[in-house]
């Protein structure tokens, strides 16, 4: 009986694995079609200065509607990385962001755009060259473009990324560490890396009311200040979280409380509505 159960369990896992593999391959196939058809969209979420209420930047976040339903980037980005589609997707995100920045500058709208860069993209030999070319092609001010990379991208092999970061700094582009605090970064490396900003992960923000979490965030903010880095808090959902972060001296905030990610038309309306900080 035990043996039989073992066998059944094995068979079940196997078919489950097979199903999931088929599902993944199917998503990749549909993603490829969507990429070729130009169906992926870049939505934008504001990053607001918590001290002044000014929207200083917008984070571009990919949206893919697959037969009527949105598929989360948390699902399709890893598959895009696995399949190699990320290079094409990533380069179209850079192109879209640069084109949008060009429009903003023509309309005299003063805002930066931050885009997410995955490890594979960042580590490609010609990454900073491509960034330079796309910015030059659109004729944009490089200081308006910000690249968000996760901790693992820079901490995995800090020595080898220093070169890339230095190239990006010399172009004038800004670089932020995304999801800060969730990886295994050694804080001592932070001072060796030419960066501009860190984004405190939502995991800290949603627990900021706990005193221990607040002290960690306080420490991150003071370290960042000493290193001359801007601090952005991700995932602010309640006024008390916002008030807390503001009083700790956090520069920028992003989250559903301020605004959700929106398509470009909606973001234009939002920017024109002169938004205020939704707490105090
Ligand atoms: P991320 O860069 O850390 O982006 C922040 C995520 O938090 C976004 O999820 C955003 O919609 C969500 N968010 C913002 N405010 C709140 C809030 O108050 N509460 C909660 N619960 N969530 C909030 P999204 O858009 O689903 O993206 C997930 C991840 O997918 C991103 O995390 C990023 O790592 C990746 N991603 C999205 N777009 C791109 C892209 O163009 N390229 C690459 N390589 N990755 C991307
Ligand atoms: Mg991000
Ligand atoms: Mg993040
Ligand atoms: Mg994330």
Automatic annotation (TrEMBL):
Domain of life, source organism: Bacteria
Parts forming coiled coils: none
Domain EAL: 24-275
Protein name per the record: EAL domain-containing protein
Organism lineage string: Bacteria, Pseudomonadati, Pseudomonadota, Gammaproteobacteria, Alteromonadales
Range within the parent protein: 454 to 733 of 733
């Amino acid at each position: 009986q035990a043996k039989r159960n073992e066998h059944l369990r094995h068979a079940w896992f196997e078919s489950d694995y097979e199903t999931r593999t088929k599902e993944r391959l199917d998503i990749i196939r549909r993603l490829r079609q969507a990429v070729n058809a130009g169906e992926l969209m870049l939505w934008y979420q504001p990053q607001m200065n918590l001290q002044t209420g000014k929207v200083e930047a917008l984070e571009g976040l990919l949206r893919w509607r697959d037969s009527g339903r949105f598929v989360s980037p948390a699902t399709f980005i890893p598959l895009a990385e696995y399949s190699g589609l990320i290079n094409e997707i990533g380069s179209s995100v850079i192109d879209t962001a640069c084109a949008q920045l060009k429009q903003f500058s023509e309309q005299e709208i003063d805002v930066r755009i931050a885009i997410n860069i995955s490890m594979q993209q960042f580590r490609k030999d010609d990454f900073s060259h491509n960034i330079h070319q796309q910015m030059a092609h659109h004729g944009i001010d490089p200081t308006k473009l910000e690249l968000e990379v996760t901790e693992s991208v820079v901490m995995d092999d800090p020595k080898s990324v220093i070169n890339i970061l230095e190239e990006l700094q010399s172009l004038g582009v800004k670089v932020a560490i995304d999801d800060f605090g969730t990886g295994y970064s050694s804080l001592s490396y932070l001072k060796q890396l030419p960066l501009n900003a860190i984004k405190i992960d939502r995991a800290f923000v949603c627990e900021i009311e706990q005193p221990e979490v607040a002290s960690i965030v306080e420490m991150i903010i003071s370290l960042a200040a000493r290193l001359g880095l801007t601090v952005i808090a991700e995932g602010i959902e309640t006024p008390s979280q916002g008030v807390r972060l503001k009083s700790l001296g956090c520069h920028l905030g992003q989250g559903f409380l301020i605004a959700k990610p929106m398509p470009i038309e909606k973001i234009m309306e939002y920017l024109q509505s002169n938004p205020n900080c939704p707490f105090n």
